[in-house]
Structures are given as C-alpha cells and as structure tokens.
C-alpha cells in the first residue's frame, strides 16, 4: 500500500513497513493544512497528533485506511471517514504504561513540590522547613475516572505505593476489567460525585469526545475536598477550565495536567492558557505517551493493523459497529 506517515514514526518500524512491500512517504512535520495536498494517491494515512478533518478526507482520492497511532480518535472526523468508506483504526493500550507513569509522576511532584524544590535550589535558596510539608501517597484515597487500559495501569501503580483506589461502579464492565480491578484492590462507588467527595486525589483517564466533554464540571469539582488533587492526562476539554480555576482559588484544589484546551497542535509554539499559568497547576506538554517504549509499542501496533488490513481483516476499527475487535474487511458494508 501507499502509506503517508504524517507524524513522527520510529525508523525501525518504517523500515519494517518497507520490507513488507509498502511504499511509505514520511512527513513527520506535516500540518493539517498541508494534508489536502499530500493525501491524494495515498491508500493509508498514519497520524498521531495531526488532525484529519473533513477537508482532508475530501481531498483523498484513494484513501482506504486511517490509523491513529494511539488510542484516542477525537482528532479524526470518523463519521465523515465512514461516509466516504474509509476505515479508522486506533492502537489502544500500547501506551498505557507511559501515560500512567506520567500521571503518577505528576502526583508525586505535587505532593512533594518537586519543581519548586528544583527552582529554589537553582536560585540558591534552601528551604527544608517549607518543603518538608507533604502528606505522602501511602494511605491516600485515589479515585479514578475511566477504567480503560490507562486507568487500570495507573491504579496498579498507585496501589503499589500503598494508596486506596476507588472507581465508579458500572453494570456493563467486562470480566477482564473486573478481574484487573480486583487485582488492584479497587473499591467501587455509586457515582462520580461520590468518588470526588470520597477521594483526596481524582485522576482522569477517559477518552475525548462529546460524551466526556466537560466531565470534570463545576458540580463535580464542588464535591472535591479542600486541598484535593486533580490529575488529567486524557484530553483538555474533559475539564471545565474556568470551574477548575475557581476551585483552585476558593478551596485550594491542586492540579497535575498534561493537557489543556488551548494547547498548540504543533510540537512547539506559544501557549496562552490562564489555567497553565495558575500557581496551583503543575503542567506538562501533552507528553503522556511520549516515551521511547510507548512509541515503539504503538508503532508495532500500527504495523500489525496495516498488515492485517492488507490480509483482509480490520483491527480496532472505531467508525462502524463491531461485534468483536476484529472483522473481515470484505464483510463491512
């Protein structure tokens, strides 16, 4: 297949695709605005952060497959792709460990005020008295919103620190998730509001999209305890940013955030975010999945999807109903 790789992709995985007979065009710095000129003639498009709106799909004359090199597909117009007969597949779970590690790192950084320690030391200030004031993670009540692969990975890591882990009970959880939750010692509560009121740390691991936009709302933040910690390594629009700022100002809520509503689409640029500048926020640059281990694991998943597609099978298709994780391509209408 003729494949356009429109984001960074490991050299070894590009070589593997070429060895398997695919014609790969590598454009790691391409922008969404550039894609309509590049996508004609391509049968497959692989993206990570680059958005794929309807205008790109309208310009694609040969496209059959879009692979999101990650789990979330909210940057792709999946409905328009389906209308045009283009399958959208993702690579779920492969970067779970990396995102969970960052979420835990943000929690530790907030609790021990690690960035402030570093800043003061670099400026010649010694303040052991101030920085000795920390609660620690052991015995903390940590609530998790979203028990997918990332939420479960975070739960296991937080439990290893001796935290008590909670999540929201759902009637339709699959047996594998329930088994993993039991292994992590997760206690289920009846609602997100109860979770926020019970826990002094709330970590968000839900997919982006209409169903989760504004999930961390003013009402939910009102249930959080004074001085509680919010972690968000999912999508920026999951959090009502104005309501979070109000909660930080009114009752000292602290936040560890890897994502923001107004973050630049490119790898570098300027960001004008009132939330990111707030003194109660420890922020990172949407780097949750950006470890070498995670990127290679995701790339391996991309290669697998491309190969299976060529063999007539879809893996992890998100823009049509599926009875299982795989289905024959020629059975799709």
TrEMBL record:
Protein name (record): NAD(P)-dependent oxidoreductase
Pfam families in the record: 2-Hacid_dh, 2-Hacid_dh_C
InterPro entries xrefs: D-2-hydroxyacid_DH, D-isomer_2_OHA_DH_cat_dom, D-isomer_DH_CS, D-isomer_DH_NAD-bd, NAD(P)-bd_dom_sf
SUPFAM superfamilies (alphabetical): Formate/glycerate dehydrogenase catalytic domain-like (SSF52283), NAD(P)-binding Rossmann-fold domains (SSF51735)
Keyword Transferase: no
Keywords from the named record: NAD, Oxidoreductase
Domain D-isomer specific 2-hydroxyacid dehydrogenase NAD-binding: 104-288
Keyword Oxidoreductase tagged: yes
Residue ranges of domain D-isomer specific 2-hydroxyacid dehydrogenase catalytic in the record: 3-319
UniProt feature coiled coil, ranges: none
Domain of life: Bacteria
Family to which the UniProt record says this protein belongs: Belongs to the D-isomer specific 2-hydroxyacid dehydrogenase family.
